[in-house]
Every structure is written in structure tokens, then in C-alpha cells.
Write a structure and sequence with these properties.
This protein has helices at 2-20, 35-45, 56-59, 75-78, 83-86, 100-109, 147-157, 186-189, 198-215, 235-248, 316-328, 347-362, 456-465; strands spanning 47-51, 62-63, 66-67, 114-120, 161-167, 222-226, 253-254, 295-298, 332-337, 381-386, 389-394, 402-404, 411-416, 423-424, 426-429, 432-436, 447-453. A hairpin with a 6-residue loop joins strand 13 and strand 14. By secondary structure, it is an alpha/beta fold. Bound molecules: ligand FHN.
Length: 466
């Protein structure tokens, strides 16, 4: 008996020791990558799926005749639920149709290389088995399955990177914003709204929950913080949280909302010295590329959380053009799905994921691993560039079959990326280099022309022979 107790004690001590030293569960030491090494897969990935899912997904943004403005994930605040009233929703949250493998397959088939799931949104309800709080999927809901665990495992099975969104603000916790009913979000506009207890919430609740997520679910490839806007949360906390995560999982990529560098919907304070690995423009795309890592996040309709009354769906063509625009400017695209309370993706989302997937599959070469275009944005579309090859993404296919290229393009060979890939003829005109393209665009949405460029030597030789 004594031997077993001693063995158990030894196992516990080793777990505590390795956890303190920043080893993920299992104790294997993780080599800390350089910044560029850590960001490499993310920079190549280009396209990810955001998933906003929780108790608000059964509310759907409605309370009787009242429909919440904006995102349905804000139901607790926008529909004026007291904490007691809102706690009824986790108690009804029982998404029996949730199938993590299916969700990951739909993301993968759409050409998405990573998934970011809301582990806890502003309402404070945790989608994992938290030992820090009973306000979680195991104790406060009849579902009693660890959603974070199931999705993490499904991502690993299908070689999709796994990320977690985590809200700094918490409308349920009394030491955060839980005492601000009916305007839980008062602290966003009015920085004088503070909770002197917040540092206790930060140390004894927020950090321990982040630690659980980074210790109990294997590699967490991305931590996507949100709700950084309150005065209670300081830049000192932000920098402390960034280091805290680095100690637990050295190579996790962390967005800039871990600190105070978000700068509103633009998502990037380009002046200050803030922690975070990438900027987070929201529902917008920067006008031009910038010299740091960034990811634009967007909804497919107008709501992050499931909202059946919001039928303002972006078309697949628009979403593909947004992906291309973002990649042409050196960014990533995090496109949102708001599953319903049963655990289903909305039909309109599934339709778009399939159409986007057909396009990304056919044009993968021009997107994944591609860099921002070195050329001015053309009137007819966008350029991306990879390994010395330029890809012309034509949004508006010219009716006369003549596509004017940037004057600085030294063309060796032009060909369609899909369909008939034989060489396309080019000619020098008074306006510049024109390629004669087929009358019919190969793709209904965005058609890509592959432009192989002359090397410096080729160009010099061509000039000498002309
Ligand atoms: O308030 C949240 C909102 O609900 C949603 O999660 C977005 C996604 O980036 N972030 C905040 C608004 O900026």
C-alpha cells in the first residue's frame, strides 16, 4: 500500500515540477523557437476558421420581440439579462449534434489551416472542464462533455492547428464586470468604470483558467485574447500574461489583444510598445500592406454568435475576394462561423465553406505561403507573389481579352493557373505589357494567371539582344 502511495506522490511531484518549469502536460521539454520560426506556419497558413459558440448560441440574439443589435454573442448585455436569468442558458446548453470531427473537416475542406474556438466569451461560461470554476460545460450544463478537448483532438487528427479565443472581460465574475448589470460593458466607453477587485480576478481566475487551457489540452497553437478595452486591465497585466503563456507553452502564437495595442477595429497600434505576435483588424482590411504580422477577422453575416434573424450574408465571391485582398497585403484571414445551440453550422455558412474550398483547392499555389505583392494594386484585381512567381488574381475579367500588367513586370511566361495552362501570349503596347487572355474566365469568381518572371540575368540578356 505504502509503495503505491509513494508512487502516486512521486507522479504528482513530477507533474507539479514540470508544470512549474513550463512543460506542457507529459513533461517533454519544448524547445523555444525564434520569433520567425514560431510564426512560420502561421504566415504560410493565410486562412483560418473563427468559431463563436456558447450559451448565447441557444438565445440566437432574441428575447421575445426584442432582437439584440450587433453580435448575438452579446445577448447577456444587449438583452439585459441578470446573471441569474442568464445562468438558465448554460443550464439548457446541450448541443447533442456537436461533432468536432465534422467541424474540422468542413474547415479543412474550405482550405482553412487553423481553427480558433471561443473557450470563454464575455459571458464567462467556460467550454472546457475547468477546475477553477463550476461555471463551465461540465458543471453548469447538461452536456457534460469537454468541448475544448474534443475540438483539440479533432484538429490534431486532421493536422489542423488549434487555437483558443479567451475573453479578458467577464460579465459573470463579481471581481470583473459581474456587478455592472444591465450595462456589463460600461467599462468599454467609460474608463472611470473600474472594479478594485479586478487584480484578484486577474491573478486568481483569469490566469489560472488560461493556465488550465495551456496545460491540459496539449499544444495550443494560438491564444486569441479579446476584451482588452477595460481600464481594469492594464498593459502591465498584458505583458505579464504574454510572458506567462510563453513560460507554459513557449511557441504558442498570441494576438495583440493580450495587451493594449489593439487600437479599436483597426486592430493595430503601430506606435506603442505592446505585447502580441500579430495585429487584429476586425470587420475591416487595411488599405495597404504593413510591415508586421496581421490577421483580419470577419463574420459571414453580421453576427459572430448564431443569429438566425441576421440574413446579411456575404457572398462566396466577396469572401474569396477578401481572402485574396488580404493575402495580397501580407495578412491572414480569420473567417467566423457561429454554430447554433444544437452544435450545427448554419446552412448558409456550410454553402460558402464548400464554394470557398473549391476555389482554394484549385488556386492553392497562389495563396498558401504567398507574400504581399511587390506591385501596385491593379484595377482588375490583386497580385500575390511566391518564390519569384507572381499570381494575377483577376476579379473583373476584361471583355476584350486583354489584361494590362504592371509596367515593372518582366514577364518570361504567362499561363492560366487552372483550366488550359498553355502559354498565354503577351505584347508590349503603348500602355505597357498586355497578355491576351481567353474570352471565358476559368473561374466564376476569381481567375488566376501565373506570371513567371525573367531573372535579372534573363532580363539583361534580353535587353542586350533587343
Ligand atoms: O466583443 C467581441 C465580439 O463579441 C467578438 O468576439 C469580436 C471578435 O473579434 N471581438 C469583440 C469585439 O471587438
Amino acid at each position: 500500500m505504502k509503495r503505491i502511495a509513494l508512487k502516486k506522490l512521486l507522479v504528482i511531484l513530477v507533474a507539479v515540477f514540470t508544470a512549474q518549469l513550463g512543460y506542457p502536460q507529459g513533461g517533454e521539454k519544448v524547445e523555444k523557437l525564434s520569433d520567425d520560426e514560431r510564426m512560420e506556419w502561421w504566415r504560410d497558413a493565410k486562412f483560418g476558421m473563427f468559431i463563436h459558440w456558447g450559451a448565447y448560441s441557444i438565445i440566437g440574439g432574441e428575447r421575445g420581440e426584442q432582437i439584440a443589435g450587433g453580435g448575438a454573442e452579446w445577448a447577456m448585455d444587449k438583452l439585459d439579462y441578470t446573471i441569474e436569468e442568464y445562468e438558465k442558458f448554460p443550464a439548457m446548453f446541450n448541443p447533442q449534434l456537436f461533432d468536432a470531427d465534422k467541424w474540422v473537416s468542413m474547415a479543412k475542406d474550405a482550405g482553412m489551416k487553423y481553427i480558433v474556438l471561443t473557450s470563454k466569451h464575455h459571458d464567462g461560461f467556460a467550454l472546457w472542464d475547468s477546475k477553477v470554476s463550476d461555471y463551465d460545460i461540465m458543471d453548469a450544463s447538461p452536456f457534460k462533455r469537454d468541448i475544448v478537448k474534443e475540438l483539440a483532438e479533432a484538429c490534431r487528427k486532421q493536422d489542423i492547428k488549434f487555437g483558443l479565443y479567451h475573453s479578458i472581460v467577464d460579465w459573470h465574475h463579481p471581481q470583473a464586470q459581474g456587478n455592472l448589470f444591465p450595462n456589463y460593458n460600461a467599462g468599454q466607453k467609460d474608463q472611470s468604470v473600474v472594479n478594485p477587485e479586478f487584480p484578484k480576478y486577474y491573478e486568481n481566475y483569469l490566469k489560472p483558467q488560461v493556465k488550465e487551457l495551456l496545460t491540459n489540452y496539449g499544444d495550443v497553437d494560438i491564444v486569441w485574447f479579446d476584451g482588452d478595452w477595460i481600464a481594469d486591465y492594464t498593459t502591465e497585466m498584458g505583458k505579464d500574461m504574454y510572458s506567462f503563456i510563453r513560460e507554459i507553452q513557449p511557441n504558442t502564437i498570441i494576438n495583440n489583444r493580450v495587451d493594449k495595442g489593439r487600437n479599436g477595429m483597426e486592430g493595430m497600434d503601430r506606435e506603442g510598445n505592446f505585447a502580441g505576435d500579430f495585429g487584429t483588424p476586425e470587420q475591416e482590411i487595411p488599405a495597404t500592406g504593413i510591415d508586421s504580422d496581421w490577421e483580419a477577422c470577419m463574420t459571414m453575416n453580421g453576427s459572430w454568435g448564431y443569429k438566425p434573424s441576421d440574413e446579411n450574408w456575404k457572398s462566396s465571391e466577396d469572401l474569396i475576394e477578401k481572402l485574396v485582398d488580404i493575402v495580397s497585403k501580407g495578412g491572414n484571414f480569420l473567417l467566423n462561423i457561429g454554430p447554433d445551440g444544437y452544435g450545427r453550422f448554419p446552412a448558409e455558412s456550410i454553402k460558402r465553406l464548400k464554394e470557398i474550398g473549391e476555389w482554394t483547392d484549385a488556386n492553392a499555389e497562389a495563396i498558401y505561403g504567398a507574400k504581399a505583392s511587390p506591385f501596385e494594386r491593379p484595377a482588375w484585381g490583386r497580385y500575390t507573389e511566391k518564390d519569384g512567381v507572381v499570381y494575377a488574381h483577376v476579379f473583373d475579367w476584361p471583355e476584350d481579352g486583354k489584361l494590362l500588367l504592371d509596367k515593372d513586370i518582366k514577364l518570361k511566361k504567362a499561363s492560366l493557373l487552372t483550366g488550359d495552362q498553355s502559354k498565354i501570349k503577351g505584347e508590349l503596347t503603348s500602355e505597357g505589357l498586355v497578355v491576351n487572355i481567353p474570352e471565358e474566365a476559368p473561374n466564376a469568381y476569381v481567375s488566376v494567371i501565373k506570371l513567371e518572371l525573367l531573372s535579372k540575368e534573363d532580363w539583361a540578356q534580353k535587353k542586350n539582344t533587343n
